[in-house]
Amino acid sequence: MVVLALDGLLPFELGIPHRIFGRPKDAAGWPLYEVVTCSVRPPGPVRTDADFSIVVAHGPEALATADTVIVPASYERGRLYEQGTLPEDLAAALAHIRPGTRLASICTGVYVLAAAGYLDGRPATTHWADAERFQRLFPHIAVDADVLFIDDGDVLTSAGVAAGIDLCLHMVRRDHGTAVANDVARRTVVPPHRDGGQAQYIHRPLPDPQLATTTNARAWALGRLHEPIQLRDMAEQEAMSVRTFTRRFREETGISPGQWLTQQRVERARHLLESTDLSVDRVAQRAGFGTAQSMRQHLQAALGVTPTAYRRTFRVGDTGRPA
To answer: Which residues pair with 156 in a beta bridge?
Structure first.
């Protein structure tokens, strides 16, 4: 993993890849990743958006060694931000990246990938407050401002700031399975998976604090995902009408109750496929899909793979790593 540090960077975002990818180890205690930081110049200081600079030990040549390049946000973007074109030193640095290298951006680091042409004709996300401007500047990119991150195979993009944690945990999950990603999340004291998208963080008028939330209903549903759950059942947990509950639920999570239930059942199915020897039929029942065919359709829609293919890829063996 090579993290590209640009002048004006946010120290918090720069630290995310080092924290998340620096934790995972194999059964023998060896690190699963090597994380290196480089700049577009020879080794030396790089300005941050705070009242201090950092000293980076590697120049742009480190990009040629990367299996994955991560670009955090920077507040000193100049013509990159205004015109969507790369400064000469940044373009020269990116030229070191080998074909086939996985690329990822955190927050407005997506401008770098877009200006370099890596996102042409592809989906991407960024901080919700920047999405409209980003779309105008790069009309050939399919911008989705409602999600926390987008995995488009060899190019991944995340929403603002802390969404970089969600993205990096997802990459660990993709590389080494749920058990490893969950362990990193626990050690970092963050949730392994956040519900909803950016919609829940966009400023809206605050609801009356005396009104009930949907927290209890969500906890109730999580305890019985294997059972049929109707919308009215969830609304009853909060003593709300279905209409009021649905509106409040979307305000709090950014998605509908039905979408949320499907997400939770997909996550339950993923966990069971990775960590148990249950048959696909039994996994479907325990996750609340009822039938293997229903689960197959939902996993195909959410993950692009069948339950059998997912288990083959991510099933954790005796070594604690995917088979």
So the answer is: 104, 151
- Tell me how far apart the 2 most distant CA atoms of the chain are, in Å: 63
Nearest to 167, CA basis, from 244, 246, 104:
104
Per-residue pLDDT of 79-96, as tens digits, reads 888 899 999 999 999 999
Q: What is the rounded distance in angstroms from the CA atom of residue 229 to the CA atom of residue 217? A: 11
Spatial separation of the C-alpha atoms in residues 29 and 137, rounded to whole Å: 46
Report long-range pairs for 169-176 (Cβ below 8 Å, ≥24 apart): 169/20, 169/193, 171/21, 171/68, 171/104, 172/20, 172/21, 172/24, 175/32, 176/24, 176/32, 176/321, 176/322
* Residues facing 4 on adjacent strands: 38
For 276-316, what is each residue's pLDDT tens digit?
Answer: 999 999 999 999 999 999 999 999 888 788 999 888 877 75
Q: CA 250 from chain center: how many Å?
A: 20
User: CA torsion, points 102, 108, 113, 116, in degrees to nearest 10?
Assistant: -160
Type of residue found at 78: G
- Residue type for position 201: Y
pTM of the predicted model as reported, rounded to 2 decimal places = 0.68
**Tokens, residue 193:** 């998976």
Torsional class of 308: left (φ above 0), alpha (ψ -120 to 50), beta (otherwise)? alpha
Burial class (CB in 10 A: 0-12, 13-18, 19+), 243: exposed
Rounded alpha-carbon distances, angstroms, from residue 57 to 2, 3, 4, 108, 234: 12, 12, 12, 24, 54
Structure token digits, residue 279 = 């048959």
